[in-house]
Amino acid sequence: MVQYQPLTPNLNAMNKLPIYAKELLLMGASTTGKFTDGYYFVEERIKSNHANELLAFCKWIDAYIGGAARGNIDMLFAAYKNPTNIELAYRAAQLAEQIRRFKSL
After folding, report:
1. H runs (alpha helix) in 1-105
2. Euclidean distance between CA atoms 90 and 37, whole angstroms
3. How many angstroms separate the most distant Cα atoms in the chain?
4. What is the pLDDT of residues 32-85, one digit of tens each?
């Protein structure tokens, strides 16, 4: 007898942020002001096999970074995917500090 395993998304499969996802997430965040809210704004256009990981990435940006832009979102995705990479963690922390200072003005 064959046992079937439930299908679960492979969260490690996406090593780079797909171009379509980058555009949608930036557009959604620009429209709503937060990446998580922006994700829900564009959710219907997100590929189902990317949905869980992109939502988690958006929540991570909102919780730990405070925002992102076209020039740094790829670096942030790399930091999100590689949390033990000291250089990426440092760059993400620097960006988070810059955003916090900017928002406090």
Report:
1. 19-32, 35-42, 48-60, 73-81, 86-103
2. 26
3. 65
4. 999 999 999 999 999 999 999 999 999 999 999 999 999 999 999 999 999 999
